[in-house]
Every structure is written in C-alpha cells, then in structure tokens.
Amino acid sequence: MIYAHPLFFTQPLSHTFYMKVFYSVLVFFSLLSCNRIDKTYFDESNSSFYFGKGDLDVREVVSLPEYVNLDQSGDYFFTQVDKLIISDNFIFVLDLTGSNHVYVFDLNGKFISRLGNIGDGPNEYRRLGDFDVTDDGKVVLLDRQRKRLFIYSTVGALMEIKKFDFRADSFVALGDGFLFGLVVESEYPEINGYHVIKTDSELNILDKFEKYPEGFMDVKFHTGLFTKSKQHIYYHKPVTDFVLQFDLKGNHLKKIDIILENPDEFESYKNDYEILAEMRSTKDFKYLSSPPVILGNTILAQGYSGNNKVMFLYDQKSGMHDEFNIKPLNFNHLNVNFPYFSDGEKFVASILEYELYQVDWGKGKIPEDVSNHITEGGVTVALYYLK
C-alpha cells in the first residue's frame, strides 16, 4: 500500500507551486505537439520515403535466410552478380562487369543455360545494360551499346531482336510494351532530356516522364533502375532524391520524394555524382546509391551516410525507420545486406560469396554444405522471407 505524506494535504499551496505545475503542463503539451508534428512527417499516402536512424530492426521484418548454392562447375563460371531475378521456376543472374552474360538456374541452383553471345554479328550483343523476365517467361536483354533488345527462351534460344534509336540504360517489360530509363542525351529529339519513356511492343514511343534538371551530370551507371512489386513498378536513378511510381501497365501514378535528412548544401551537388563522391568524405549527408527494393510495407535501400555505406529501412505503414552500416568490421549477412531483388510480397534476396564470407560475423549460422560451396569459390543466394 502507498501512503501520501500528510503535509501534502495540510500545507497551503503557494502561488509558486501553481506556476510550476502550469509550466510543467505547458511543456508537456508542447512536447506532445512536437511529437505529433514529427509523426505527420511520414506521409501515409506514400508520397515520400523517409530514411534515417531510428528503431526499425530488420529482424522484425524478415526471417533468417534460406540458401541456394548456384552450380558453377562448368565453363559458365560468373564473377559478379549485378542483378538477380527469381521467378516461379528459375533464378536469373546478370554478370555485367565480369562475363557480360545472363545465366539461368533452376530453383535448386542447377545450371540451365547461358543466354546469348558477345560480338558484332547480327545475332550478337556487344554491351549489356539490363535484363528483365516477362510474365510469360521470356528473358529480354538490353544491349545499350547497339540499341537492341534480345529476347530469349529460358533454355537459351534466341526468339526475336528489336532495334531502337534512343539511348537507354535500363528498362522493364510490360504486358504490351516497355518502360525505358534514358540517359540525359538520348539522341532522339522528341524525348531528349527525359528520365523515362513508355513504348508499345514494337518500341513506338507512347509517353515520356520527368525531365532531368538543368545541368544534370549523368556520370554514374547503375544496373536495373526499375524494380517491381506485385502492384507497382518503381523507377529511381541514383543519386536523385525521388522515385517514380507506375502501375503494371506503365501508367505513371505519382512522384515519391526521398527524404534523407540531408544538409541544405546537398541541393547544390546532388545531381553531379563526381562532386558528390568528392564531398562524401567531408559532409554528413545521405543518399541512395541504388534503387529501393519493396518488401511488403517495408522499403529497403542501399546508400551512404557520410562516407559510410549503409542499409536504409522504412516501414510505410508504421513510419518506423532505421539504418545500419555495411562494412567489413561489422558485416553480418543475417541483416539482409546487399538486396538485389524482391518479389514485393514474399522475400528479398541477396548474394553470398567468398570475400564477404571471410568477414561475415554471421557465418556460424550457415550450413556446412553452403560454407563449403562458398569457400571453394561458389556463389550462394540467400533468401529472406517476409515475416
């Protein structure tokens, strides 16, 4: 039982006491008001993605990973995974900076095919920029140098080649056409200076979206500027501070602002990657270095906070967010580092290979057969399912 001191009731209450109570209540409601203002910062209509330090733990979002070893025992060895797509039946890997090929595996990691041939022949591509998989299972490769789309079956049969006149470095397949991400100088007067265009299946231009700002320096190439969820397609070009949202038919829905708590001076150089890279070591700013990945209500994005590479998390429904560093001294694959692909509803996938394995604090959780595969130079897909 708790007793109140008798003096609390018998002593007269002074004017000073009342003033203290008044100011305490005033401060309380002032703080409450500030908290309410902070909460409205997170736009429930999803017109902004917020990234910063907070309390959202990635372990609350996804389960511990499942592993798929990719078979690399033949002459189809790849050196790097620049883009990963997992369909209902296959795993597709783009090794752009190494072998310049797309590889197809089944869901158990067994090798199926390597798509296409490099060269200057009529049925060969020269330099890939992106690839996508259509709803009916065709694999489409973008040759950004020769301005062509190569369409293959999953077993490697070339089915069709489509030519275009503009300069595109990324694309996504629609049911009856395509969305293309363009470079600033697209070499096509009608669409010069636009981020995205929509075409029909024969690559006739139907619409264009979002002009580049004046003086934009298009110096950073990134594979895969489009990402998909079950209901939407998203376009983001690093290091810009917005995302374009489309429906699955390629109709533009809205522009989503990326809010990163950057200093004011970020506005002056966010569109020039060379200046941004130079300033990164001296400024405490944040930006995305790759397009965000959608997983249920959560947005995952890789970027920088100052000179530190970080993983950003943002829950659209609750407004919770967080960021954590990605560097050798604290690398732990259990924290979903390096997301390459999400189906939007079930999982996000990332890659494990030997260099990461060496500094991985979570490797004790990896099964023995997976550890052996990685230490022998193999590549493993880690699948993190949404809780």
Q: What value does the average pLDDT take?
A: 84
Indicate the percent of residues in helices.
10-25%
How many strands? 26
Report low-confidence residues grouped into runs of 5 or more: 1-44
Strand count, sense and closure of the main sheet?
5 strands, mixed
Q: Looking at CATH, which topology would you report?
A: Neuraminidase
Please outline what is shown here.
The protein is mainly beta.
Salient structural properties:
6-blade_b-propeller_TolB-like; Neuraminidase; 387 residues; disordered N terminus; 6-bladed beta-propeller protein; 36% strand
Q: What does this entry look like structurally?
A:
The protein has a five-stranded mixed sheet with strand order 1-18-17-16-15, with no helix packed on it. Strands 19, 20, 21, 22 and 23 form a five-stranded antiparallel sheet that branches. The chain has six helices and 26 strands. Residues 1-44 have low confidence and may be disordered. The chain is globular. The protein has a single domain (48-385), classed as 6 Propeller (Neuraminidase). The chain is mainly beta and 387 residues long. The chain has helices spanning 7-10, 15-40, 266-269, 273-279, 354-358, 368-375, and strands at residues 48-50, 66-70, 83-86, 90-95, 101-106, 111-115, 128-133, 139-143, 148-152, 158-163, 168-173, 177-182, 194-200, 205-211, 226-228, 232-235, 242-247, 252-259, 286-288, 293-295, 298-305, 308-315, 321-325, 341-342, 347-352, 379-385.
Detail the topology: elements first, then pairings.
Layout: H1 7-10, H2 15-40, E1 48-50, E2 66-70, E3 83-86, E4 90-95, E5 101-106, E6 111-115, E7 128-133, E8 139-143, E9 148-152, E10 158-163, E11 168-173, E12 177-182, E13 194-200, E14 205-211, E15 226-228, E16 232-235, E17 242-247, E18 252-259, H3 266-269, H4 273-279, E19 286-288, E20 293-295, E21 298-305, E22 308-315, E23 321-325, E24 341-342, E25 347-352, H5 354-358, H6 368-375, E26 379-385
